[in-house]
Amino acid sequence: MKPTTEPRIAPNERPKTYRVKSFGCQMNVYDGERMGEMLDEQGMSAAPEGEDADLVVLNTCHIREKAAEKIYSDIGRLTKGKTQEKAPMIAVAGCVAQAEGEEIMTRAPAVSMVVGPQAYHRLPDMVDNAVKGKRSTDTDMPAIAKFGALPTRKRRAPSAFLTVQEGCDKFCTYCVVPYTRGAEISRPFTGLIEEAKRLIDSGAREITLLGQNVNAWSHEDDKGRAIGLDGLIRELAKIPDLQRIRYTTSHPNDFTPGLIAAHAEVDKLMPYLHLPVQSGSDRVLKAMNRQHTAQGYLKLLEKMREARPDMALSGDFIVGFPGETDAEFEETLSLVDEVRYAQAYSFKYSPRPGTPAATMDNQIAREVMDERLQRLQASINRDQLAFNANTVGTTCSLLVERKGKLEGQWLGKSPWLQSIWFEGDAQIGDMVEVDVIEAGANSVQGVLRK
Q: Looking at residue 99, what is its pLDDT?
């Protein structure tokens, strides 16, 4: 039989195994886990590593450069040389699905279903349609509806994600999130507390609160009082077996005095803050529609360090934004030198279809962006190594997350989100004390305290 470009659909035959392949941010990881839980509820099981799955869900991210084209490449690899009976059923989910919609269905006949990030709770019904020979697309964006339709959490790892807020109202000129995730919405307080407790009951000891602008979360508590993210954190901290709380990603404009105070007053809130700045140039920030200045950002970080002197700082940077001059890039390097990030993420600007920046004049040459990125990353790597080196000789608590590559070796995260490895008697989920004895750029070695 000839290889097929048609969807893999055999009437009355449901997929028995699945694989969810998530790209991009932590929110996609959360969404991918929840889709897996829904498919488990339908009687499917995750395909073992190295084995083909009957159903493959490509949970896409539009932040990736040439994201759509890479998804088509993945689809091609899944179907190459396979007959209709052997090819997997394919679902495309996430932000590329939201942005491309029917275009994916037209260009990729092997895809059975396309579902956006606000509609994936309907995935089981779409699988039913595919079994009946019907292809379907769902890119509706109902506010919050999906969370009420998702099954009970079954996460058993010691660290878990919990989405509390979705969407974005900021409309940065380079970003597609407002178009693919929709307007800012906050999940209700009660549902979040209940989901957190279920995660703890299933083995989680650390929860990371997620949102496109997580610190924009606001709602009423169980007594009808308006609270922000700091209030939610304080309530979560009351859960006895929850030992650590983190949150990401924040926007400088949504930071409140209450959230700063929480870092000084809530022991379970970890001393780590990821706060993107994107550029050290006020002109570039204005062109990006970031709505904050470099100096305002630095003053905010100063307040955070006053509240929590051991705070580890992280950020995001875009180099080569349209019109960025050499002098403006130097302003970014100066900001990095002043902050001394414990870690940071940096990217070359790449245009996203439909965003204002994609049509701006003075697009920067690729070779210029390459050179700037190398210089920026050299500064970031320098500071990351210095931060890790400064922890040598200290003792810190460690949440054991997984086994290491060698027998008797374990890995976990410090309060400052460093990866630390050690040898000794431990189990996944343990909280242990280690003495830090050696530091590298990306990991730290510890010795287990007896």
A: 81
